[in-house]
């Protein structure tokens, strides 16, 4: 009997080692990893450059405090402002904390301007922004909010309907919050026109636009920022997961204009952006910004989309839709997705379930074309096995 909270329906698997695209159990069994710790392990396992950076920093100093200058943090922040729209960065330990900072920044921006009643955040069904009380409220999914008390200050509507969004805007609205590609909600990449429409609404009503790129950003779509596909620039953006490639790190990024209300005393974090985390963050960024890295993600992402289309043609009874962008991909399937994820584990392939019965594929960004073809071949084998079992059960 585990002494842990029972908050996860955990699999029986325990991995003790990783190498490249593969994870290994104690007995040496290898699993091809198309889950990447849920979009975290962007560089797979055992990246030398990152491991060396972690070890080197561990020998120097692990932690000081944000009451002192942390050179690695200054450096990572400066680099992030060079490759995003942002001028200012606040580092956190997780995605949810990055969202907390984004929500506080938006509200404080209006408070500072004397518009103290502007606190409401408009979000979308199918969103996921983390598990803190503010972030479950921001996503508004009853599965996650039920039993956790009242959480005023958030409104929700269906994505895709600009008129419905505008109908929610009033003189208490502060910001619109959206993932450009929804991950947990079912791997939905929103159209450029919808995202542009949200920017227009924000400009028209004087609101802030917040992009949550915790899952879809940091190279996963084949561009560093997912927003680059639409050209829509947010005022605030959250990143996490791939930023530390397995080391707990997140960040909230904002324009100078918006961040200037976050003065001393308004926010803080004991660990956020500590020397160890930022040494890793800088090394991860070195790798992601290597020439050709993002082009590789784009190319392999296209191969994955093509292979999944072929899979849908081969098994139309099982695959009804192919979704995603780059290496955040999903297929909407007819068999119960959690059972199918388990079946794939039996075939030594790791994937993740998403809402809307979507099988999510989030390989490390170093995945090769051969890795993608192997993963899709395993999925095809599992469908063929299911087909044979269904046919024999019907006899
Ligand atoms: N935002 C998005 C889009 C996410 O996918 C997640 C986690 O899956 C979060 C926020 C929360 O991140 P964390 O679990 O690091 O708090």
Task: Explain what the structure shows.
With 395 residues, the protein is α/β, with parallel strands linked by helices. The protein has two domains: 15-46 and 292-394, Alpha-Beta Complex (Aspartate Aminotransferase, domain 1); 49-288, Type I PLP-dependent aspartate aminotransferase-like (Major domain) (Aspartate Aminotransferase, domain 2). The protein has helices spanning 36-39, 48-60, 71-83, 95-112, 133-139, 142-145, 162-168, 192-205, 256-259, 275-288, 293-314, 337-346, 369-394, and strands at 15-19, 22-25, 30-33, 88-92, 120-124, 154-157, 173-178, 181-182, 188-189, 208-212, 236-239, 250-254, 319-325, 328-333, 349-350, 352-354, 358-361. The strands form four sheets. It has a seven-stranded mixed beta sheet with strand order 4-12-11-10-7-5-6, with helices on both faces. Strand 16 and strand 17 form a beta hairpin. Helix 2 (48-60) runs antiparallel to helix 10, helix 3 (71-83) runs parallel beside helix 10 (275-288) and helix 11 (293-314) runs parallel beside helix 13 (369-394). The longest helix is centred in the last third of the chain and has 26 residues, at 369-394. It is globular, with a radius of gyration of 21 Å. The two termini are 41 Å apart. The mean pLDDT is 98.
